[in-house]
Structures are given as structure tokens and as C-alpha cells.
## 1
Amino acid sequence: MSILKRPSIRNRRISSSPSPPGSPHPAYDPIRMETVARLETSSAVPLSIKQVDLDGYDIVPPVPAFHNTFELPASSFYSFQELQDDIAKAISAQNGIPHRRIEAKRDFYFKLSAHYRRHTDEKRQDVRVTAQNWDELRLLLLSDEVHVACFSVLWWKKTTGQRRADRAEALDGFLYGSLPDLIFVMIRFTRFGASFYPHVKDDIYAEVAQFYGGDRHVIRKATYTFESRLQSIQLIGADGNLGPGVLNGLVGAGTFKITVFKRESSKSKSNYPDGVEVKLLSDDFPIDELIPALKDQDAIVSTVYGAQVDLQKRLADAAIKAGVKRFIPSDFGSCDSQSKRAMELAPIYVAKSQVRDHLEKLAQENPGFSWTSLVCGHFFDWDLGFFHINLQAKSFEILDDGEIYWSTSTFAQIGKATAAILQKPEETKNRFVYMQSFRINQNQLLKAFEKQTGQTWNVKRYDSAEYVKERKAKADGGDKSAVEDLVWVLGTLEADWEARDGYANDLLGLQQENLDDVVARIVKSN
């Protein structure tokens, strides 16, 4: 680690030209910088830019197509031109704007600046510098004093030579589709790993407010929040019904380091994808084993049975002590666990609400900790019997007229949604997230099965009120199958997630699946 021993950088403009004897900083050395970059890249916080606030003046038209978050790779090897190109490509891809129409050199000005925090024996200081090129800013990483370095780029549209009123008029409508006219980009590097970051996030520069002059009638104020992406993920319940789908979604994202908890007595085969680590713990998952096992983990995803309240609470308590940032509980499933009716008809939703209440309390007491409940509707490709569908007998049971719409999700879609939640920590924290593969009614589902089998099916219809009354009496008497029937009713009659405020398919980047294609796959596999 002696490579990190470098002379101090003072509060002055940095130059990348060869330094004369006695200069306070070394000349830029590509070979030395490459070595340092290798050491730094593993702990660099990936770039995430979130635009929080834009002025709502009449001159600014609605821009629903504008994606507020751009994610670019954070690399110590970036050249300034590469950064410009990546910004242009990201905006182009997310807004459907041809890349050639936002050529950086022709259409935009760039201004580089840097901010870093250094610790001295006497006090902590903030130092600001300006630079002429990207290589000059790289020198910040060579200083022992630098604990955090932030590189920022201000990008704005070229309107030189126009009168102020003409510039404002030209910007009206955004000349390049939904492209904003002012973008502030920041990349953060830190020498400390993920376990250090949450403890100093608020202290070192968690939220940046930048006020701009110039075309204030177009954009007066832009505020950006920078978050560390959740990268080290702990999955518990990987061998259950839902676990494999979630694991595949996390692996498929390609951005996570994944660890699976297993009981020492577990006999299930660990046929996990390459790169997935397995940790064996005592069968009752004692908290004194959980805490060290969760060190350096960013998030926990629980796919155990939702009624396992004590286990999930114990995991959450251990997560707090281990510094875990996010907890996704076993709230997946047919119904919204906030629903009073769901809790009245099915005890499992009482259990789920108890876990969530515990997580909410922990999040209020620990600002660095948060939770997300993912509500996905019925597991569409789990068990046809749960849907009261018999493929062999070609029989189908329908509630009422079969015209009520409901949301349902495949295991693969749930896995993608879980990964997307962890990739968007700020947008998904401390909230319910509703998602789906498709929104259908029972009559549409019947037609899909008849189409794929080429046969007319036998249909039995129930009055839902009478059905619920009869099954609730049996459930109260201990009939477990009656409880499942009640969950089927709730997830069919009261699960239209598109009508909810927290519907998040667009936020999570999820495309609707094709009902006929999924049904064809199910028919073929059965």
C-alpha cells in the first residue's frame, strides 16, 4: 500500500505538466495512476444522478419522457471526452434522442471542477479546485489527505450570441426533445469501502444543492442527491418457491455480489449460478451468528415463508448492528399486506404487517437503514391449482362475472423487480412498490388457456360473497386449504396494482409480459 504515499495537494489550481523541483504535487504519471486506480476502483461509488427539483415556470413544458436518473460507470480511467460521450449516450438512450443530435463538442459547453475533503491533525477542511482537463483532476486520488474526491461537470446548451429573451425562447420546448438544458454531473470516489460509507454519508456531501444564474427563467434551481448503490446482497430463502426466481434476477442484473444463507442441516442442493457465495448458519439463525455474517452486506432480501415473523425480525435486528442499509421482507405475494380485509381473512397478512411495522420502527430510529415491500400479486407460474385451474381436466373456476382485473407476476419478473429496487435505493426506500407481469381478468385467462390447448374448457362460477363466507368458516376451523382459497379470492378481486399510487413498473424499468406467451410456456411444461 506504499503506492498511496504521495505529497499533499494544496488549495490551488492543479497542473498536469511536469512539476519543477519543490513543487507541492507530482506530475501526472499514467503508469502510477493506473496502479492507484486499481486500488481505488473496487471502493469507488458508482455514479447515480437524481434530479429532484426543477422550477415549474410556464416556459418549461411537461417532460414526462425525461428520466431523472442517469447511471454511468464510475472509473478512474475515464478521459474527459469519454465522460462527455457517456453522458450524451445515456441521455440519448433514456430519452429516445438520436446521439448525433447531442454531440458534446458542438452543442454543449462543459466546465470541470472538483471538491474534496481532507483530514489534517488540526481540523477537517473542504478544498475546492478548478482544472483544465480530466487528467488534472485524477491527481486528487494521489494525495494521502484526500478521503473523498468529487468530480463535477456542468453541461449547458450553447446559446452564445443571442439576446437573453431570444435564448429563453429558443430553450422553450427543449430543442432536443425532452433533453433538459442544464445538467450537473458528479462522480464520487472514496478510499473507504461500502461498510464505511453509510456512517459518513450525511457528513461528507450526501446532498448537493447548486444554484445557477443565467437562464433562470428556464431552470433556476436544480438539486441533486447522490446515493451509494447497494452492491453486496444477502439472500435468505433461495431454495423456496420464490427464491430461485429472485436469485436469477439478482444474478442477471450483473451488478451484485450475492451471498445465500443456508441452514447447516439443509439438504437442498446448492446449484446456484457461478459467483454466488453460500454461508451456513445454525438452524435457528442465532443473532450472534447473523451479525458477523452480515458485516459488509448492503442489503438483505428475504424470500422465506411470510409467516416467519421472529426470523425476519431477528434478521432485521442483526442488520442494524451489522450496518446493512436495506431490507426487503417476505412481503411478496397475492395481496397488499396493508389491507385490513386481507388481515381479517388470512392470518399470514397479519404476520407480514408485524414484520413491516418492525422495519418501519427500525428505519425511524436508524437513518442509515431502510426497507422496501414488493407487492407482486399472485405468483403466476407457481401452481395452477392455486388459481383453481385444472389443466388435465380442462376445468376453470371463476368468481362472479370474471371481469374484475387483477395484477399477477411471474417469478422471473419478480426477480427483475427485486434487482431494480436495489439499483434504485433512493426512489424505493421506506415504501410499498407494486409491480406486475400483466393485468388481466379471469375471462381473459380462460381464453388464453383455451387458445393454447385448442379446446373448450368446463367453467364453474361462484358468487364471491357466498364463497368467502363458506371458506372463512372452514379456515377458522383449521382448514389450511380454505386459507389458500381466501388468498386466491383476495388476489383476484382486490389486486389491481395499476390503480395504486405506488405502481412502479415504469420506475423499475419493467416491460409487461405477453399473456399468451407465458400461458403457452406453462401448458408446455405441464
## 2
Amino acid sequence: MAFITINSVIASFTAVKGDTAIILEGGAIVADVGDAISTFGANNEVTIRIDGQAVGAAQGVRLLGTDDALSNGIGANNVTVGATGSVIGGDFGVFFRGSSNNIVNWGEISGLTQNGIVVFSGADSGVNNHGTVFGDQHGVIITTNSLNVDVVNTGGILGATGSGVIFEAGSSGGSVTNSGTISTQDLGNANAKAISGADTVINSGLIRSPGVAIAQASSIINSGQIIGDVTMTADGDLFYGIGGSIFGAVFGGDGSDRYIIDDASTFIVETTTGGLFDSVGSFVNYQVAENIELAQLLGQEDINLTGNSQDNLLDGNDGANIMFGKEGSDNIKGLLGDDTLRGGAGNDTLVGGAGDDNLRGGADHDTLSGGAGDDILRGGADNDLLNGDEGDDTLHGGSGVDTLNGGAGNNSLYGGRGADTLDGGDDDDLLVGGSGKDTLRGAGGDDIIIGGAGQDVMSGGSGRDIFVFRQANDSPTNNTKDVITDFETGVDRIQLTGMTSGAMELIFSGGFSATGPSVKVVTPGANTKVLVDTDGDQAADFVLLIKGVQGLDAGDFLL
């Protein structure tokens, strides 16, 4: 063990175990053959500082672990290149073998024909570059069997014909943290990447390649600039792009990958054989890339999200969002804010969440739930289920056989075409059946129930309900008559206002009036029929059956 100071020019230096050597500014080691600085065998735990020059025909610095071990040997060597220092190797600039080796560079390191820095079968080693590292092939290479090697760069690392930083296959746990520049410049070499094989890449600087900038990374956090494509592994990977930019595509691979972005121009490529749960979280308006299944809006801004042709799960944020599922059977959730949700084609599920939301199912069999707030729900084509939930909601079934549930609040339900089922829920609701054979249930509250065209079955439930009939052809014959199942005399009322242009006479016995339009009430069995002659021809143009009720009087009608 010795402390050596070199302030002149010498041909070579071989360190032994525990040595500390300093090459002062103005000092130099120039080896015309072999290495400038080296160790062999069990000579480890060496500390070298270079403020001058180390120039070797083979390696500038070559430090080996215990017993020249090919793997798992202990190196525990430390090399620091100062701001005035330089290391040049004909083959490699700096070559480490074994574990627990560290290099800190503030100056220049070059490998003229091969690599700038080599970590060979290293474990728990570190490369810290604040100066420049150049390799005619790779700038920094971490070889097979290396574990947990961390590369930190605030300067510049360049691989001329290979990669800026490469972790070879068989290494694991490697990371690159870059706030400087890491690059390669050989477009003709398919294996040339700026960074290749690192498990984790954290970038706030510049990573640049004419082709692939980052290859086979499991986790990428980019707040800087990436020029070139990015390829992930076959596992479930993370690309976190907040505050950064990428001029190239991000290729996800086969696993279930996660992307967090704030730049809508981020071009994501997922294959049909990729993971089942690829996802994007976006702080900006975003059109979901093909083969992405899950997408979520982040933050509190009023931003929008559009799905793809897959079956998507789309989630909003705290703002007012517009979300459109497009093709596929989508699940769209609004969360907070006054959201607009569109299902498009496919069997979609739309949930408004909090806020006054607008939901439209589109084609196929959709399920819409308004959540809290005063919502508007439109089912569209086919057989839909609409749930207003809390708030004063408006529900439109559209075409198809629809089920509309108002839930809490004063709701308005419109069945549209088809044989629909409408349930107003508690509170004071408006139910309009539309054209088909509808079932309308007011449930609690003082409801207004309008059957519309078709043979409808109506019940008001508790409360003071009004059953409205506007046209005679809504229930024209005994075979097509509407039915009220729970009319309560003295509480509920039947409104026939507007069925004729003039007044109608109400008759409880005998035939129709011979002088004009009239309403006749008859009681066959335990039921009551209401018959309306709208044109004074003494023939029924409208028939209504009220089940289980007799004894109606004038107070039960609005004429």
C-alpha cells in the first residue's frame, strides 16, 4: 500500500492492492505498448486520480478484480479524472473488471478504436461522467453478468458507431440518469443506440440517435429531450414523459405498459400481441393510440379524451371532460366536473360521476349512469339501460327496448321508440312513454305520466299523480287501450285536456252526448273504463282501462 504522486512523464504504472496514485496536472503516463495504468491479480482497492494524462496503446486505465476474476470478483477500485485530466486508450479508455468499482470523470476519456469506458462483469459499480466520454464503438459498455451498475451523466457521452451507453444482454438492474447529452451517430448500424439495455433511464438532458435513442428499457422518466425512437421490453414497462419531449415513436412491446404524458404529439405504438392492459395517463387532450386499452385524464384542466377501435376503459379527471369511446365496447367514467360522454359503436358503459353530465350511448346496447348532479342521458339505438342516479336528471331512451330509471331527484324520462320501461323513482317526475308498448312507473312523488302512442301500462305509485292523454289515437280501441294499474280516487287525476278543440261533457251513466264531444265513465266488474268521443258521433275514439278502481267522480278528471 503506497501513496504515489506523478508529476512527470513516465511509460506506465502498475498499482498494487490499496495504492493511491495521483497524476498531477502536467504529469503524464504514456504507454507505447499495453496499458498506461493497470492492476493484476488480487491487486484491488486502488484509488487513482488523474489531473494530467494517461495514454495507453491498449487501455488508458485497466483495473481488475481479485484473482483476475471474470465474474463476481471484488474490484473496489476508484478512478477520478479531474477537469484538466484526460485518459486515452488505443482500445479502451478505462476498463474495470469486478464489483464495487467507481469512476468519476470531469475531464476527457476516449477509446480510439473500441469503447470509452468498460465495466466488465461488474456488480454494484458506478460511472459518473461530468466531462466527455468517447468511444469509436460504444461510449460506455456494461457487459454480460454485470449487476446494478449505475451511470450518471451531466456531460457528454458519444458512441460513434455503436451506442452511447449499452448494457449487454445478461446484465440487470442497470440505470442511466442523464442531464447532459448521450448520443450515437451511426444510422447505418442497426445496433447503434444512444442508450441500450438499461432497466431504468431518467433523462432531463438530451438523448439523441439517428435511429433508436433508447432500446429495451423497463422504466423511462423523461423531462428532457429524446431525439429518436424508444423501444421498451417484453414486460410491463413505464414511460413517464412529463415536462419532456420526444421526436420519434415509443414502441411498447408485449407487456402491459403504462404511459404518462403531457404532450399530445407523443407517438405510441402498441402491437396487437401486446399486453392486455396497456394504459395512458394524459395531462392534455389525447387520442388513444391503437392497441391501448386503458386511458385516463390527469390533473384538473378541462381536457378531452378519444378512444380507439378496442374495448377501452376511459377515465376523466377533476375538470369538465369530453370523452368519446368510438368503436368497441367501452367503459367511460366522468369523475368530477360537467362531463360529456359519447359511447359510439359497441356495447358501452358510461358513468357521469359528480357534476352535471351529458351522456350519449350511440349504437348497440349501452348502460348509462348519471351519478351525482343534474344529468342528461341519451341511449341512442338498440336496447339501453339508463340510470339517472342522484340529481334532477333527463333521460331519453331513443330507439330500441330501453329501461329508464330516474333515481333520486325530480327527473324527466322519455322512452322514445320501442317498448320501454320507465321508473321515475322518488320525488316528482315526468314520464313520457313515446311510441311503443311502454311500462311507466311513477313510484314516489307527485308524478306526471304520459303514455304516448302504443298500448301502455302505467302506475303512479305514491303521491298525487296526473295521467296525461293528449291524443285519441294514443289509445284508440279496446284492443289497444292503455291501462292504469294503481289509480287512487280523490288523489290522482286523469288529464284529457287538448284531446278536442272544445269542451267535453263528462257522463257517468247512459250513452255519449248527442250534442258534441263527451267523456263516458263505465264500471265493468271491478274496473273502470274511460271512453272518449272526440267528434260527437257517439262512438268511442279513445279507450282507457283503470284496474281495480270504481267510483270515479268529476274531481278525478282534468278536461
## 3
Amino acid sequence: MDGVRLLQQGYLAGSPVKPQTAFSLPLLIFHNSLWNHCHIGAQPFTLALNDWLEPRSQRLCAPKGKHPRQLRKPFSAAVDMFRQLEEKRKKSIFSVLGLSNQEVLASSSCPACFGPQPPNLSDYTANMRNRLIVCLDGNFQHRHQIKASRNHEKLRTPQFFISQADVDIVSQEIRHQEAQGMTPEQVQSFYLKIMNETEEAFHFHRPIVVQNLTRQRTSNVMNQHGKDVTTLG
């Protein structure tokens, strides 16, 4: 039975071609609720599922074998597919209802705009209240993923998150404003400092690329200021 017919019967397949394992939608909904309220991994969840099911039914064996089937990989694939379906369902609802961005944020309960206020609200200044601050580690898994593989899964940005392209545009505008009124030497030193900080943050050991980027950005800023500058050699 293929994945489409399994879905019609209320199951999500663990693989797209000739699935051997499928999981019921109520089970995936239950796991998603647990995942939203506590820390739970796929491996312990599937092990607990096996412990609960085997005394009540026959053992689910691996194909052409007698040892129990490992459910972690197909279950993780089914969970990923379930979350993609949930995301498409939400987008379809927002599109049909014609909700504005503010209404989408309200329906998603963005904690910065619509969440509960902290008890020590008076400790913050007026411009710092009702703000959501998300701090991520810049080195989180970067080097490991680069060394492990290049076939990374495409990043899916949630509905109420700012896209990386918008962040880059604002960052460039901020740097351009900071460079206003500087001398050519100060601008060159300013962009060298930015490139050095970027190199240290992401551990990019590529001096030629960094040097070329520095040349290009420094030359662009100098041209905007209408001044000549000697690029780095």
C-alpha cells in the first residue's frame, strides 16, 4: 500500500516509496502535544511505544528477520511529514480567511506582542518593554554540519519570524549609517573589524575570501563617499 492510500486510512508512512511502517495520525497528534509541552526525543518515545505494544500484540519484526524493527528513523520521517502538513494547513487557513500580518501574529500568540507580561515589568525602560529577545549560539552545529555533509535540509522559517534576507538588509543599512562621516582610513578599519568578528564567530578559515569581501565592501563604501582608497593588497 502506498503513502497516499495509507493517509486515506488515517496513517502516515515512514518512507515515501514502498513503506514498511506507518503511524496513526492520533499517535502523531499525541506526540506533537508532548513535544510542545516537554522535552521528548524520537528514540525514547519509540522504545516506550514498543514496550507498551509488544505485550498487547505480536512483535513487529524487521523485514526478513526475527529481531524487533527499529522505529526511530521511520517515526522521525513521519513526524517531519506531519509537521509539514500542519504548516500547510495553517497557511491555507490564513490565506482563505485573508488575515493580515497582525492577525496572523495574534492567532499564533507571539509572546512579545500578545503574551503575558513579566511580573517585574517596571524594571525595564519604556523602549524595552514588550520585546522578545531570542539569543542563539552562533557556533551551534555549524562546523559539525559543514564537516559532516552538504546536503542540509532547507531552513523553514516560521510565519511570525523575520526572514534572514530582511535581517541582512537592515544590518547593511546599519553599517552604512555607522560609516557616515568617517575618513577613508576609519571606514577601512571599521569594515576590517567587522570581517574579523565574523571570521571569529563562524570559524571561517578562508583568508582569501575574507580579503576579497573586505576589498569589495571597502571599495563600495569609498565610492559612495566619493573618495579614492587603495584596496588591500
## 4
Amino acid sequence: MGNKPMGTMTGSNGSLLEDLRAHFTERDKDEEPRNGPVSEIQHICQKASEKLLFPQTTGNKLVEAYEARMNDCIGKIEARHDMERDVAFEKMRVSQQRFVTKTQRTLQQVSSRSARVQKQMQRLEDDMKARRNVYGGTTEALGALRQCAVNETGAVEMEDCARP
């Protein structure tokens, strides 16, 4: 920088104050300290550049502090989210297990009731067949009895015979 002319942009963000500061700092290293107006001007420039750069360094520190706190908050939020998600998954797993158990139990009950109902329906059908057979036999016997009565007496009046 000492070889570059004053006012040439060389700083990180290109500010003239940084160039001045760097220039005088390098020059002060090479030369012995002087007393007089030049050193006083250098001292004033040094103080002015420090005052002008102070808000930037303060702002950088503030940004770093906010970033650190923000990262801490994000970490806490992520940790809480993970914890709540784990709790929700555990509750869901318990509810799912309870649902599966109750569903299986209900299916077993329906199946056993269905088997009982099917047995009862089979018995009912068997009873109905037996009754139909008895009714059919009775109807045939009555028909035969009627026929016999008609054949013996000849003509039978309608009021005397009940129709089956």
C-alpha cells in the first residue's frame, strides 16, 4: 500500500478512510515518530478514522450477537419441534395399536356371532323343512280323507267339506 498513491481504493469495502488509515499505519512503521504538525495531523486522521469506523465495528458486533441468538433460538425451536413430533408419533403409535386391537376383537366377535347366527339359521331352516313335511303330509292325509268321504257318500255339499 505504501507504493500506491493516496486515494486508490484498496480496502475491503473500498472506503477512503481505510486507505488513509492503512497508508499512515504503514508509513508510521517505516518512519520514526515525529513531533510537529505532520504527526499531529496523522494523529487527528487516526482518531477521525477510528471514530468513523466505530459504528461499523459496533454494527458488526451487533450482527454477530443477533446471529448467535437467532441460531440459538432456531436450535431451541428445532429441539422443541423434534420433541413434540416424537411425542405425537408415540401417541399415534399407541392409538394405532389400540385401534388394531379393538378392530381385531370386533371382527372376532362379529365372526363368532355370525357363526352362531348361521347355526341358528340352519336350525330354523331344518325346523321349517320338518314343519313343511308335516304340513304337507297332513294336507295329503286330509285330502285323502276328503276323497274317501266323497267316494262313500256320493255327492258332497260344499258346506259339509272344508277346503284345504
